[in-house]
Structure formats: structure tokens, C-alpha cells
């Protein structure tokens, strides 16, 4: 598999995807979107891959949608063309995906990181939704996912002023799961992904589904959904193996059955 804007490396059961448009700080143009959707579609059905790490360069995870590409579009172009709707496929990816962020994660870059299941960032990471400075608003979930992640006050602050927040602020307000030194970013993200890929993929898929549901429905409905999936796991061999391994004081060997 070879792509113009992406690099792919496999480490054990982890696929590491690197956004690779250094000349534009990894700005997300339509080629990036098409290629990323294509690649994730292939990884979705690849049984050898249990989890994905999505990263960028040291300077930029992604500095947003490609402003030069969309600059000359008018309302009819973007409305009839349903601009950016292809990115929804990324949020629909069913395997765990970790964003490993260094440098700028702005606009669509911040939104792409938020579509991932969690974010590990370096101390140099900077997050923001600067669309207001361009005369537009976030268009790929920034007003919704950011608000759910950090609450109204911070989301309003970032979206209305266009300011960036650093990794420390992003971690303290809940946008980022872990902050690490630059040289440990990929190591830490791959280790987390490898750990996840070693668990029962049935249970892993259900964690992703249930936690994601928490953002979409009431607590009562979410709890009921969680309980039903929890019950259903008792029909799997992996539940028998996981619990037997605990009792027998050994490491579980999951078969994803
Ligand atoms: N689009 C296109 N090109 C970009 C972008 C971008 N978003 N960001 C940077 N570049 C290009 C620059 O034009 C420059 O190219 P050139 O050398 O040809 O002039 C090159 O990358 C390097 O950038 P800078 O020289 O500006 O680098 P600096 O270190 O001086 O500044 C910044 C870095 C602060 C990140 C600055 O580049 C910047 O402000 N970039 C734009 C950030 C922004 O406004 N992002 C939001 C874009 S709108 C958006 O994302 C809408 C989301 C809707 C959905 C998205 C779906 C994907």
C-alpha cells in the first residue's frame, strides 16, 4: 500500500499511520481524506491489526483543513458537494485509534484528533479551533466534540477567540489523556495500542462502542446498553479464558472468539 500523503508502518499488531504533507504542516486536503478513509477501510478488515496510532510530524499533527484548497469554493460547491462529509468515515472506524499529537493540532487537525479514541500529546502540542479567524466555524465536529470533551466554557473560549491551548491546559481540561516528552511520543502510543491489541478484540470493540455512546444518549439508556453488552460477553470464549487465567494466576491468551 502506497499513498501520496500518508506513511504506514506496522509494529506487531499496531498500524502506525503518519500524516505526511510537511510542506503544508499536514493540512488536511481531499487527498488526505480519501487516502485515510481508504487505508482505515483496509485496516478495518485486516485481522492482523488490533489497533491504530495516527500521528503527524514533530511540528504539526495537522494545521487544519487545507485553506488553499477550500478558499475559492462557494456555498453551492460545499453544500452540494457535502464538503468534509467523508471525514465521518474516520469517526466510524471500529478498531481503537490513538492520536499521537506533537505540535499544531488546529481546526480540522484538532477535530481529527478528537475523532480518535484518545489523545497522547507531547509538551509542545498546541490545540485550537481557529476557524473564527478565517470567517467560518469548525465544520468537522469541533463545536460538538470539543464541548463534550472540555465543557462549554473552554469550548466557547477556544472557538470564539481562536486561541490555542498548550498540552498542559489540554490535559487538565480533559482533551488529552497523557502528556509525554517528545522522544517518547510514538513509543508510548504504540505501547498503549499494543496493549489494547492484546486484549479480547470483542471486549475492546464493546468498550469503544459503549464509551462512545456516553456522548450520544441519556445515562439511563447508556447504562442499559452497557449492561446488555456486558452480559453478552459471557457468551465468549475470551471471557472464560480471561477469568480462568486470573484464577489460575497466569496471563490470558485471547482468541477473539
Ligand atoms: N492550509 C493550507 N496550508 C497551510 C495550512 C492550512 N491549514 N497551515 C499551514 N499551511 C502552510 C502555509 O501556508 C505554509 O505554506 P507556504 O510555505 O507555501 O507559505 C506552510 O504550511 C508553513 O506554514 P507557516 O509558514 O504558516 O508556518 P508557521 O510556523 O509560521 O505557522 C501555523 C504555523 C500557526 C499553524 C500557521 O500555519 C497557521 O495559522 N495555519 C493555519 C491554521 C488554521 O487556521 N487552521 C484551520 C483551518 S480551517 C479548518 O480546519 C476548518 C475545519 C473544517 C473541517 C475540516 C476537515 C478536515
Automatic annotation (TrEMBL):
**What's the catalysed reaction?**
a 4-saturated-(3S)-3-hydroxyacyl-CoA = a (3E)-enoyl-CoA + H2O; a (3S)-3-hydroxyacyl-CoA = a (2E)-enoyl-CoA + H2O
Q: Where is the signal peptide?
A: none
List, in alphabetical order, the GO biological process terms annotated in this UniProt record: fatty acid beta-oxidation
Q: Which GO terms describe its molecular function?
A: enoyl-CoA hydratase activity
Q: Which UniProt keywords apply?
A: Fatty acid metabolism, Lipid metabolism, Lyase
Class of this enzyme: lyase
Q: Which Pfam families match?
A: ECH_1 (PF00378)
Q: What is its EC number?
A: 4.2.1.17
Q: What does this protein do?
A: Could possibly oxidize fatty acids using specific components.
Q: Give the record's family classification.
A: Belongs to the enoyl-CoA hydratase/isomerase family.
Query: Do you know which NCBIfam families this protein is assigned to?
Result: PRK05862.1
Q: What is this protein called?
A: enoyl-CoA hydratase
Source organism per UniProt: Rhizobium terricola
Amino acid at each position: 500500500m502506497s499513498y501520496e500523503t500518508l506513511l504506514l508502518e506496522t509494529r506487531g499488531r499496531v498500524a502506525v499511520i503518519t500524516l505526511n504533507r510537511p510542506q503544508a504542516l499536514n493540512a488536511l486536503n481531499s487527498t488526505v481524506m480519501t487516502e485515510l478513509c481508504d487505508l482505515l477501510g483496509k485496516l478495518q478488515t485486516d485481522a492482523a491489526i488490533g489497533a491504530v496510532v495516527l500521528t503527524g510530524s514533530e511540528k504539526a499533527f495537522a494545521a487544519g483543513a487545507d485553506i488553499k484548497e477550500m478558499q475559492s469554493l462557494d456555498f453551492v460547491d460545499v453544500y452540494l458537494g457535502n464538503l468534509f462529509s467523508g471525514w465521518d468515515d474516520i469517526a466510524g472506524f471500529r478498531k481503537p485509534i490513538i492520536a499521537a499529537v506533537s505540535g499544531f493540532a488546529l481546526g480540522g487537525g484538532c477535530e481529527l484528533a478528537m475523532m480518535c479514541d484518545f489523545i497522547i500529546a507531547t509538551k509542545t502540542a498546541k490545540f485550537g479551533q481557529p476557524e473564527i479567524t478565517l470567517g467560518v466555524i469548525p465544520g468537522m465536529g469541533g463545536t460538538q466534540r470539543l464541548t463534550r470533551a472540555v465543557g462549554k466554557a473552554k469550548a466557547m473560549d477556544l472557538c470564539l477567540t481562536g486561541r490555542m491551548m498548550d498540552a498542559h491546559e489540554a490535559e487538565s481540561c480533559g482533551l488529552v489523556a497523557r502528556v509525554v516528552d517528545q522522544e517518547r511520543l510514538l513509543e508510548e502510543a504504540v505501547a498503549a495500542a499494543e496493549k489494547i491489541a492484546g486484549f479480547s478484540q470483542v471486549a475492546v470493540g464493546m468498550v469503544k462502542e459503549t464509551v462512545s455512546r456516553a456522548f450520544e444518549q441519556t445515562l439511563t439508556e447508556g447504562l442499559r446498553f452497557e449492561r446488555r453488552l456486558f452480559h453478552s460477553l459471557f457468551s465468549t470464549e475470551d471471557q472464560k479464558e480471561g477469568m480462568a487465567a486470573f484464577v489460575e494466576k497466569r496471563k490470558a491468551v485471547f482468541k477473539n472468539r
